């Protein structure tokens, strides 16, 4: 249908809430709300950066925790080349290009 939502429709979870605005039978605006897991705050002490075993252990435990929770996809944010490398090694990663925001709903 030419909308961003249409392009990602097959990937939306079953419990997503979809909101559309129609005019004269045409969708003129759309959005979807759904819960998603977001991993945040990855860091390795400066004395241990570059130690492959430490990063591997962190990723393995994170992966186990996600799988135990029944999660098969997680959003991750990289703030340095090192954390970007960890994200890419975590699993099949798709680098997102859009700006992302943490928005408090008042």
What are its keywords?
106 residues; alpha+beta; two-stranded antiparallel ribbon; two-stranded parallel sheet; 3 helices
Describe this entry's structure for a reader.
The chain has 106 residues and is of the alpha+beta class. It has helices at 4-8, 52-68, 81-90; strands spanning 17-23, 26-33, 38-39, 75-76. The radius of gyration is 18 Å and the shape is elongated.
Task: Put the structure in a nutshell.
The chain has 106 residues and is of the alpha+beta class.
Uncertain spans: none
Q: Could you tell me the radius of gyration in angstroms?
A: 18 Å
Q: What would you call the structural class?
A: alpha+beta
Cα end-to-end separation: 32 Å
Strand coverage percent: 15-25%
Order of helices and strands: HEEEHEH
Number of strands: 4
Summarize the main sheet: 2 strands, antiparallel
The percentage helix is: 25-40%
What overall geometry do the principal axes of the alpha carbons give? elongated
Mean pLDDT: 85
Task: Give me the secondary-structure topology.
Elements: H1 4-8, E1 17-23, E2 26-33, E3 38-39, H2 52-68, E4 75-76, H3 81-90
Parallel strand pairs: 3-4
Antiparallel strand pairs: 1-2
């Amino acid at each position: 249908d030419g909308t961003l939502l249409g392009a990602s429709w097959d990937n939306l979870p079953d419990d997503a809430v979809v909101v559309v605005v129609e005019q004269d039978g045409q969708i003129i605006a759309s959005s979807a709300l759904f819960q998603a897991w977001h991993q945040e705050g990855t860091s390795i002490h400066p004395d241990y950066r570059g130690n492959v075993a430490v990063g591997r252990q962190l990723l393995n435990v994170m992966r186990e925790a996600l799988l135990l929770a029944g999660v098969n996809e997680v959003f991750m944010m990289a703030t340095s080349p090192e954390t970007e490398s960890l994200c890419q090694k975590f699993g099949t990663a798709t680098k997102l290009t859009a700006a992302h925001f943490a928005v408090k709903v008042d």
